[in-house]
Amino acid sequence: MKYDLIIKEPVNTEITEAYNYYEDKQEKLGHALLDALEEALQELKSNPLGYQIKYNVYRTKLVRPFPYILIYEIKGKEIIVYQLINAKKAPIKRFKK
C-alpha cells in the first residue's frame, strides 16, 4: 500500500531549531542531520508499520545517528508526523499531540 506522508507544522519548527543547533556546533553538521532525517522519512514511508506502537496509536522512528525521534501515527493511507524530539533533552515531551 502506498502511503502519503504528512508533516505537521510544529515539526518544521523543530527541524529548523535542530539544524541551527548542530550548525552552531560544527559547520555542515546541520546538513548531516537533514540527510539523516530525509533517510528516516523515506524508511518510514516505505515501511510505516515496521515500527512499534509505543503509546496508544503513536509510533516512533529514530533518526540515526542523531538522538532524535519522529513521533507519528498511521491513519488510513496517511502517515502523520506530529513531532521531532530530542530524546536526550526532552523525554517528557514525547507523545504530546
Descriptive report:
The protein is an alpha+beta fold and 97 residues long. It is built from two helices and five strands, in the order βααββββ. The chain has helices at residues 9-25, 29-46, and strands at 4-7, 53-55, 58-63, 68-75, 78-86. It has a five-stranded mixed β-sheet with strand order 1-5-4-3-2. A hairpin with a 2-residue loop joins β2 and β3 (58-63). The mean pLDDT is 90.
Features:
single chain, 97 residues, alpha+beta, YaeB-like fold, 5 strands
Q: Which second-level CATH architecture applies?
A: 2-Layer Sandwich
- Total beta strand runs: 5
The name of the CATH topology is YaeB-like fold
3D shape? elongated
CATH classification class: Alpha Beta
The structure class reads: alpha+beta
Along the chain, the helix and strand elements come as EHHEEEE
Kindly report the spatial arrangement of strands forming the biggest sheet.
1-5-4-3-2
Topology, pairings included?
Blueprint: E1 4-7, H1 9-25, H2 29-46, E2 53-55, E3 58-63, E4 68-75, E5 78-86
Parallel strand pairs: 1-5
Antiparallel strand pairs: 2-3, 3-4, 4-5
Helix pairs in contact: 1-2
Short synopsis of the structure:
The chain has 97 residues and is α+β, with helices and mostly antiparallel strands.
